[in-house]
Design goal:
With 166 residues, the protein is an alpha/beta fold. It is 27% helix and 17% strand. Helix 3 packs across helix 4. The longest helix has 14 residues.
Length: 166
Amino acid sequence: MGKHATRWERWRPSVAICQHEDLLVSRFDLLYQKPFESLQVRIAKDIRYVSPETEVVTHQVDFADPWDFEEVYGALHDFAKSYPFDPGNETYLIHITTGTHVAQICLFLLTESNYLPGKLLQASPPLRKKKEAAFKVNTALSIWIFPGMTESPCASDRRRMMTSPF
């Protein structure tokens, strides 16, 4: 998956976000598990290709069972506690499109509780005809989660992205 040139014909959420005209990502923090290291390398390389101005930083976050809520939450919580967030100078978008449903729920909860001080971002594939390679990012933010939000999550300023392929 994702190793051949045909990967460009499919929608790939992490890469597609960096192709979006209205969302300039200055740094993309990509979380991955050791068994998916080669996929992480390919995703990082492809992000750099479509968005040369985006710095890609990878973080290995491991757990034995990606469907075990307690284990996944613990690993992501530990990551969040150790990460040097700087919300005064950076805007964080937490990409919850990729990964298991457990990882998505954990990222949501960690964002809602402000361990991940950002806004949620969810992408969806474009409606397209067969073999058409178009990309579109839809943002899904619940206004009740971010009552102090005063700007669009796709404003043209520089953003920092965190995502997880598990």
